[in-house]
Amino acid sequence: MWRRVLAWGAAALVGVGLGVASAWAALEFGRASFMERYGAWTHSRAAGSVGADPYTRAVIAREGLLALSAREALYFNLAEDSQGRPLSEACVYELSGPPLETRWWSVTLYARDHFLAQNGDHAAAIDATRIRYDGDGRWRARVAPVRGEAAHWLSSRNTHSGFSLTLRVYNPRREFRASAESLPVLTTLNCAGAAP
Amino acid sequence: MSGWSKYVWAALAIAVLSHLALINAVPNVLTGVAISRLGEAGVNQWHMAPRVTEASRTIVRPAPDFAYSVCAYDLARGPLRLRVADWDQYWSLSLYGANSDNFFVLDDREVRGDAEIILMRQGRAAPDHAEQVVQSPSSKGIALIRRLAPTLEAYNAAARVAADDVCAPFTNS
Question: Do the Cβ atoms of B64 and A108 come within 8 Å?
């Protein structure tokens, strides 16, 4: 009798444990499968939507609660470089892009906990109202622990366990088409400790 | 079914059910936490958030370019009147249900001057004389105003404008 009770109890415990672990893994590691990819950027058109599937809704609630639906704004996230390596404060990157077919856009750098990094340098975001374009029609921003000579800078100074970037595209025009070419490109310039 | 197989199948069935329950619970739990935090200073009234800095820790991935005003609402006692004072750059009013869905957005492309809506619980009769009525799928939720204000000066100007916003019980008078 007791053996049977224990067996059912163990089955229930194992089942709940598996369910919790698989749900956590789905949100932590499987999130990319619920997203569209444009180069290294990930995007969910269903973010904030009443038609979002349960997994997309859960991912967005964890990482972008109070996101606007695609009718109003599009969100693109970048957590890896073009080689698939997590973004690191040990590296210096250049983010560059053409003008976007939208009313307003911004790029914000977030620490791994999804909040602004504790940098103390007020360099968490760049946006369309303050960006300057170079002679070739593209804007460029340095993503690094220090500004150097860069006109635009996103500080990764105290992002000790990695960071990510979010591109916000508000009131995109009809001409706006997300693609690896139309979205900003992140180039790794150098990494501390890397072989020359 | 005999031996250990029935326990294995039971464990797998419980795993699937608890997996689905958890995935579906995550948005409701996180939105509930947000409603509680944002409503600490009082529900059914606007609260303008301090300018977003690295010290902002209430909602994940805040945008430092916006001046946010938030109203944690509860429609249990009836409809609310939401008014957004005009702003000379981008602004929007967005509404979120208890499951985190953004079920309504209004922005400055659609409205000239101040905006006003009546927010009521889905399925209830609309009050008389109410013009733009929006139905919330849940009693509790979050109303959020975003005003584009990338600089401190713009934020301070938005704060002055936000003093005229209204989130309050609707009366027919």
Answer: yes
* Cα angle value B69/B75/B76 (rounded, 5°): 145
What is chain A's mean pLDDT, rounded? 90
Q: Does B104 touch chain A (CB under 8 A)?
A: no
Half-sphere exposure of A20 toward its Cβ, with a 13 Å CA cutoff? 6
- Please judge whether B34 and A27 are an interchain contact, meaning their C-beta atoms are less than 8 angstroms apart: no
Binary contact (B7, A11; C-beta < 8 A) = yes
C-alpha closest to that of A95 among A117, A78, A83: A78
CB contact under 8 A, A115 and B56: yes
Interface membership of B50 toward A (CB under 8 Å): no
Q: How far apart are CA A126 and CA B16, in angstroms?
A: 43
A134-147, pLDDT tens digit by residue? 999 999 999 999 99
Give the Cβ contact number of residue A3 at 10 Å: 6
Ramachandran class of A137: left when φ > 0, alpha when ψ lies in -120 to 50, beta otherwise? left
Q: What is the pLDDT of residues B38-93, one digit of tens each?
A: 888 889 999 999 999 998 888 888 999 999 999 999 999 999 999 999 999 999 99
Interface ipTM: 0.85
Q: How far is Cα A167 from Cα A185, in angstroms, rounded to an integer?
A: 11
Q: What Rg, from alpha-carbon coordinates, does chain A have? A: 20
Strand blocks (E) in chain B: 47-48, 66-74, 80-84, 91-96, 102-107, 115-121, 133-136, 140-148, 166-169
Tell me the C-alpha to C-alpha distance, in Å, between residue B171 and each of A42, A104, A146, B73, B90: 45, 37, 55, 16, 30
DSSP B36: H
Q: Is the pLDDT of residue A108 over 90?
A: yes
Closest CA to A67 of B54, B2, B66: B66
- Rounded to two decimals, what is the model's pTM? 0.88
